[in-house]
User: Fold these one by one.
Assistant:
Number 1:
Amino acid sequence: MICNLDKNLLQDLLDGVIDPVEKLFVEEHLKACSECRQEINELKLLFWDLNDKSSYDLELPLELDHIKNALLEQSLEPASQSTFNSLMEVQRKNIKSARNNMKSASKFLDFVPGIKAGNALAKESLKATPSALKYVSKSLLKTGKLLKAK
Amino acid sequence: MDASDATILKLYKKDKNQGLEILYDRYKKYIYTITYHYTGNKEDALDLTQEVFLSIFKALDSFETGFSMLPWIKRITINKCLNHLRDKKDALSLNQQGEDGYEIQDLLPASTNTEESTLFLDTKKLLTTAIYALPPEERMAILLRHMKGMKYEEIAKSMGVPLGTVKTYLHRGRKHLKDDLSIGGLWER
């Protein structure tokens, strides 16, 4: 006789997750079906081994302590990060003050006649230039214009 | 919330070094046991344990004090394991050595040396090898259910899959294991 019972039900029965009605049905079926009895006996052995906690016992290797020390060192020394951040901060301040200095240093150029047309041209060409470079090149251009005028 | 988790977090706020150290000692066994039985070897298990703790340490500042740490730690561990095996899918070699110096090819059941291998290897090793031979998701579901005794709903949540999928992984995984262990000669038919 070929048995058509869903064998997963046998697993669910052993794992305690079977529906109560199905449980009654499977238990009745087992009385009559030797194939399923054989199957459930093998599954019982498997469940026994799988649920036996000693199957998973293991010794913790010494390397776990090395990993701990390395991780602690790494986590408690955010030096690279903070150094990077503070360097960035200093750089940002430097660039800002340099820009201000340049602005005031070239302020007098605003009052030189004929410089406005040159400025418009410079602005056009400098649109794609990064801001820090922009101020440097801008004042250079201004100076160039001034010399030419002389 | 687990009292000692709260204590660890309090301690961490006061003294980072001590907080992290206690957290590591408290969860290292839990994490290493999963990573070891999942990867089947010490080196990968250690790598993964390190990755898991690195993620935990990084995110600990933003961890909300009202929650228990274990479910969060489980999720990180499971994700790291599943991703790790995805990355290393093709890297398994039959000559790769396990912790005891056995090569994987020695552990594979063969009809000619069934008796010999049964005498040579005990149940524990055969089971570990059979679990390691499972597809990653089935392996993880089996370990969480039988090794860690987690409920189906909890496994579904931790693995980020529907409950029905967990059942399928478990059914298939156990069937594979049963077939492997029967062929391996562990049980008399």
Number 2:
Amino acid sequence: MSLYRSADQELEPQVSLVDLLDRLLGAGVVLSGDIVISLAGVDLVQIRLHALIASVRADMERSATGRV
Amino acid sequence: MSQTGKYLYAVTRAPAGESLTTGSGLRGQPLELIEHRGLVAIASPVDLGEFGEEGLRRNLENLSWLEEVARVHHQVVQFVFTAAPAAPLRLATICLDTEAVRARLNTLHDQIDAMLERISGSAEWGVKMYLRISTPAGSSGQAITQSMEQEGRTGAAYLEQKRRQVNQRRVGEEHAVEAARSVHTDLSAVAVASRLLRPQDPKLSGHQDKLVLNAAYLVRHDREQEFVARSEEVLAGQDQYELVRFGPWPPYSFAGLDDA
């Protein structure tokens, strides 16, 4: 459902979001943009994000196993 | 579209091929090349309603929004990287206009240029090593069950079994740490640089086995086959471990401006 397509990239298997975010948030050139949250908020964002993914997974597992 | 800004994906050296402008970025917007003193930033226009401070704060908590942006970001960086050495920028780096982008390139010119030199001709490979929890190292679970049957199901036997299991797991993990260190040393020998990444929460990765190594390696293109071969043989015959490798990727983990 990505808006971006190119022949080469169709061949690459889908990488996990966690591995991607490890790099997109935790690494790369830090160039101070005009939108400050991208830098100052990263740690906060990661924490929130982790909490969010954890809760999504918990929901998925519950519905997959039928446990309450 | 309300007010727009420039979302930045990567920086490369001029001349960046004009073919890069055939690609599209977030929300299908065309890629733009912003050149300054021999460096080129690859950007695309974004709506500041969505990517401004307030929008980002809200949207970054929306997992499907984040995933889509992260994947498009990665795809554009990959696209640029196939054409030239490229330094990826951190997710959600946004400037208000072209002049602001040029000002950043001007300030960081020497650092970015030196970093592009370091990563030129190389790509990043990720390696993760797991200790399988389902197959504990050391003596098998079967032996414990048998001895329990001999001793009878008493409380003492139960505690003894627990104690052995804990001990067994501890020894298995100690061996795994050693094995991981050795894998890292072996792979680093084929790499230009290496970096240990922080451990991942199993809740996030969805992987129940114990992660004992999460590392990134910067590998020259002409040594890729050697790196792949070594990663495949380094744990041969040790079924208690699983090694996951991915790459070649743009050198995300090696594009820090403060890495000397």
Number 3:
Amino acid sequence: MNDKNLDVSEATTAEAQPLLEVRNITKRFPGVLALDKVSVKFYPGEVHAVVGENGAGKSTLMKIVSGAYVPDSGDIFLQGEKVHFAHPIQAYKKGVSIIYQEFNLLPERTVAQNIFLGREPARVGVIDIPQLNKMTQDLLRDMGVEKLIEPTEQVSSLSVAAQQIVEIAKAISYDSKVLIMDEPTASLTSVEVKLLDDLVMRLKAKGMAIIFISHRLVEVFEIAEKITVLKDGQFVNTVNKADVTPTDIVTMMVGRELDQFFPPLGLPEDLGEVVLRVENASNDFLKDINLELRKGEVLGVAGLQGSGRTELAQALFGVEPFKSGEIQIHGNSRPVKSPFYAISQGMGFVTEDRKSEGIFPQQPIRDNILMAIRALQSVFGLVRKDGVPKSKNLVSTLSKKVDVRTDSYDREVQFLSGGNQQKVVLAKWLASDASIFIFDEPTRGIDVEAKASIHEIIRQLTKQGVAVMMISSELPEIIGMSDRVLVMWDGKITGELPSRSSEEELMLMATGHVNNHISTNAVAGKE
Amino acid sequence: MTISAVPTSGVKQWLRSIRIPPVFYFLVIIFVGGAALDLIFADGQMVRNQTILTNIFVRSVALGIVAIGQTFVILGASIDLSVALVISITSVMTSYIMQGDPANVPLAILVVLAIGATTGLVNGLIITKLKVNAFIATLGTTLILRGILNATFTNFEGSVPRSFEYFGYEKIGPIPVSIIVLVAVTLVGWFILSRTKFGYQLYGTGGNVDVARLSGLRTDRVIIIAHIICSLTAVITGLFLVSRLRAGAPWVGTDGVYDLESVATTVIGGTALAGGKGGVWGTLGGVLIFGVIDTLFNQLGINPYMKNILRGAIIVLAVASYTIRSKRESA
């Protein structure tokens, strides 16, 4: 399906044996085919990037290679020998190590204690501390970082980059041949990225195979020699960096038909006044946020994981408030310092993590629906079973409106399907008369039918004069639903696209290609 | 990132390298403040009289030994509420088996050590294999042990021979044997934690059980061993108490509130309830703070129940100061 001469995997096979090879790996999770017969070869002395959209299967593949998941079918070969990892420690011992995004270090222990945890040099159980520190010193010197990190330093006192280096040191100390790095640079400054790059080059020169998972195409093109693209759990291609441009990669990553049904976009007459305005607002994650949200529109917010999408929603709703800048709700410019204030101003937040933030799973439907409106009542107000004094049958009215399918409103929400749970969350905010809705991944983990009905409800809301901001990592959803799209990257809003923009345009912006020529070309091309 | 090469004196460097737990600053403040109050409102014996000074330590022995054990389990992100009952059982069983006869001493000690080790093993197994929360698991064993104990003994039972009182009352030179035992237990605890593989594994397991498992540690075993050590320190405390009281009663452990106080002093000492951070020296500092407060209230002749107000305030203040400190460090 792709240009044949880009395919290098066949050509190199004859020259060298791959250090690590996966063949026909398939992995199925409930409801999703995460990996579908994926085969990739990784060679020694090579930096090999694996890229793809959220949910393309990159992380699943890496977890299989490092022993965290067992594949449903398919084989893994290490230096030509078939291996089977049931536990990460087995992969470690065979020389395959992985460094995850979240740190796997003990912050209260020293560098040496962390690296050799469980393998300390000891005689009858008593640790030879000088020897332990010397081993660590030797290892760090080998890596060329002995000036940066002392074996006896406590990990919590190190910078993020130095901590990452300690993790790499730990991996190398297992004598690893394959080093997998999952988004290693996500939280590093550019100086630190340089440091890491130097280290990667050094390891490469030693004949290790480095696998590099990243969302940042700019970096992928700086550091990797080969790039493998995955899409929707399927292998697309493995290419040499020299043969392709970032745009080629993006085309491989996206480019699928808009196969779902979405309700029609908003009409000009639906659009009302600005209900939410943010000017030059910042906090620890977000920089210089400027946005306007109008009555009657769906404003899509796209961006990759870690781009600041969820942080933006949390800042607007007062969970992690902005520290500077201005925020106006319905023309009222008071800083949003708490969710309580946000709710009192008519905001509703349908969170990404439904289970831990959106519902009380062990409480019945009726109490979940009435949760937000009760929060606004006086503490001493009496609680009604099915509604509030103003509206006695609120629960049933709203449940019918959003089409919650249940035989009884006494049923605990945990026993509903994902789609029905999400509808309960919607009803909860409708009860509180919210006029500004923030949706964070409104249809994650929901079946197709429920998805369509939630999309329908969102559009209905805007017809009734509600303003909707919808965050989603699914590009088709963003494109299918949004009247306007904001793209975020690295805590900033990097651009705005009109409705029905292409996935390629979005993806380029979301991977850090903020360069004006791309976005202006794209917009110009439309007009 | 590297420490600048300003020449520092050997003492300063040494002080920095041993990292004095911050609880000792609290201890100094409370001791100086207490001594001042004593000078003003009472006879000032707290600093002048060596016996009273020594008494601060002797009062701390019983709590100190078991708190060292509690530190082990808390470092492993576990907790042991059953220590008070192990102390009670030890004291009763010891004097019951000894019946004042020196010939029975070895048997008695063996039996109580076995009871302690079994309790620790059972606690550890319930927590790691049945995956019961440590608080609930040890609360359960506490109730079971209490039921057995109260059904069997109701009052002082038997007595210890005069030779066994050595532990509680004798001195080697000017120093009471009991203090030497407390220091020895602390030193052994420190050695295990900072010099042995088990100690490193305990910090690893308590700090982050997933990291520990990924590093190949058998974390269940680590937790079980920590619980056995903790119960054994409770046995030593029980032996000390019975040698001072000369006979064991089924209420000595619970009346001493050794369960909650051992947890409190461990936490005051800077060991995190979440595990993986802290050590025995801090706990010893926490125990001595309680000892100073006891002595002070005694000196001033204040209603002893009032001291709990001060203790409570110190727990809250100490833990709040650690939280603020660690927040500032990470910021």
